[in-house]
Design brief:
Blueprint lengths: L22 H18 L5 H20 L2 H16 L2
C-alpha cells in the first residue's frame, strides 16, 4: 500500500472533514430542543404552538431521511419560535 509523504496513511484514503457537529450530535440537540418546546406549549399562543408542532414533524422527517441541512433549518426555526415565547 502506498502511503502519503507524511506516512500518515494510504494516498487514496478519503479525507474526512469534520463538521461543526456530527449527525448524532445534531439529532440529540434537535430532540432536546423539541422537548424544551413541548414544555412551553402551555404558554405558547395557538399559532406558535401549531408552528412548533409542524417544526417537530419537519425535524423528525429530517432525522429519518438523514437530511442534516433540513434538520439544521427546522431546528433553527424551532429555536426562533420558542425564543419569542
Amino acid at each position: 500500500m502506498a502511503t502519503s509523504p507524511s506516512g500518515m496513511g494510504a494516498i487514496n484514503d478519503p479525507v474526512v472533514v469534520p463538521g461543526p457537529e456530527s449527525r448524532p450530535d445534531r439529532e440529540i440537540a434537535a430532540h432536546e430542543l423539541m422537548e424544551r418546546s413541548r414544555r412551553l406549549f402551555d404558554v405558547m399562543h395557538a399559532e406558535d404552538r401549531e408552528e412548533a408542532s409542524g417544526l417537530h414533524e419537519a425535524i423528525q422527517a429530517a432525522i429519518q431521511a438523514g437530511d442534516t441541512a433540513a434538520l439544521d433549518e427546522a431546528s433553527r426555526a424551532l429555536k426562533e419560535a420558542i425564543t419569542k415565547t
